[in-house]
Amino acid sequence: MTFATIKLPAASVGNEAHIHLHRFGSKGGKKVYIQAGLHADEYPGPLGAQHLLRHLQQLDQQGAINAEILLVPFANPVGLRQRSFGHVIGRCDWHTGQNFNRNMAINADQVMTSLIGSFGDDLLENDQLMRTGLKNLVSQRSDDFEINSLHKILLAHSIDAHYVLDLHCDDVALPHVFLWCTPTTDG
Q1: Does the domain at residues 2-181 carry the CATH identifier 3.40.1370.10?
Q2: pLDDT of the residue at 19
Q3: Rounded CA gap, 95 and 148, in Å?
Q4: Is the pLDDT of residue 122 over 90?
Q5: Looking at residue 106, what DSSP letter applies?
Q6: Residue 43: is its pLDDT beyond 80?
Q7: Would you state the pLDDT for residue 170?
Q8: Which of 27, 29, 49, 28 is nearest to 38 (CA)?
Q9: What are the pLDDT digits (tens) for 147-165?
Q10: Integer Cα distance of 22 and 20 in angstroms
Q11: Is 24 exposed, middle or buried (0-12, 13-18, 19+ CB in 10 A)?
Q12: CB contact at 8 A, 39 and 100
């Protein structure tokens, strides 16, 4: 396991935030990305991620992980520091008003324009071209606001994953799971 602390550009002097990234397994095969707490007031996701962290550490020590797994137990340190009268607000950026869970997507037209004519008959090569192209598009994103920096860092680590889990939980919403998996040639 490796651990990285990624510093976000500060919105104001003396106001730092960091993303903590845990990496298990080895690069080169399948990649799994798991994040929790993008809405900082949703506590079950980060709690579940902390329990998962312990299990992944044990599995990694046993050499039982045959993929690269990235875990970000608290994906929104900006929202975690948003407190009002003792309560974490953490759903929308105070500087822009934007919901932390919105406007992260890569524009499909931009993807097609940047990659048109690049693909051939080799599915694995095409897969790698797409993942590299997506990472390149993320690197070109603006980080003029703290929320944009947060999104850029999270996307830079997740965009090329084969499996992405974004853990959310709201006390007033119906239970649901969103899972995005990219097709593979091995079924």
Answers
A1: no
A2: 95
A3: 11
A4: yes
A5: P
A6: yes
A7: 67
A8: 49
A9: 999 999 999 999 999 999 9
A10: 7
A11: buried
A12: yes
